[in-house]
Amino acid sequence: MSNGTVESIHIASAAQGAMQALGQVMAIPGAGLEGDRYELKVGTFYKPEPDFELTLIEAEAIEALRRDYQVELAAGDARRNIVTRNVPLNHLVGREFAIGNVRIRGIRLCEPCDHLQKVTGKALIKGLLHRGGLRAQILTRGAIRVGDKISFTS
Q1: Strand, coil or helix: what is 25?
Q2: Cα(12)–Cα(63) distance, rounded to whole angstroms?
Q3: What are phi and psi for residue 67, nearest 5 degrees?
Q4: pLDDT digits (tens, 9 = 90+) for 99-115
Q5: DSSP line for 66-132
């Protein structure tokens, strides 16, 4: 098993709304994170498909954006639900893993887009290309907390 951690959790209750940092949130299979725009079916790109339930991004990708491209981006401004540390998210496409006790399935990469650039007002597509995160499906209901271990079979 390899282990990483949840560094921060973010939701927004409206499309393009401000992201709110939380210490914990309820993950709901077939819906998303409780109170998030996609669970509420009001996200900009909402579709009733599993890859709109949860998004993750590596803290290391945000740090590399700052270091290599001089683009400052707060964790919540990445507009991903969970910021991870020590988790190779690209390797989790098509794989199951756990965040604490919640089972998750990686679906596809969450590449940066023009919409993200417009909402943040920052040129970040080049710096986050292939590092923009992971879209995932929630398989079991449960609480996800900051500090939770992220585990997967190597």
Answers
A1: strand
A2: 22
A3: -70, -45
A4: 999 999 999 999 888 87
A5: HHHH-----GGGG--SEEEES--GGGGBT-EEEETTEEEEEEEE----HHHHHHHTS--HHHHTTTS
Domain around 98: 2-152
What tens digit of pLDDT does each residue of 47-59 get?
A: 677 878 999 999 9
| Amino acid identity at 110 | C
- Side-chain-side CA neighbours of residue 63 (13 Å): 8
The rounded distance, in Å, linking the Cα atoms of 25 and 53 is: 13
Tokens read off for 84: 């991870």
Nearest Cα neighbor of 77 from 61, 99, 93, 98 is 61
1 band by pLDDT with thresholds 50, 70 and 90? very low
Q: What residues are paired with 5 via a beta bridge?
A: 85, 149
What CATH number is given to the structural domain containing 130?
2.40.33.20
pLDDT for residue 42: 84
Any idea what DSSP says for residue 65? Answer: H
Number of domains in the chain: 1
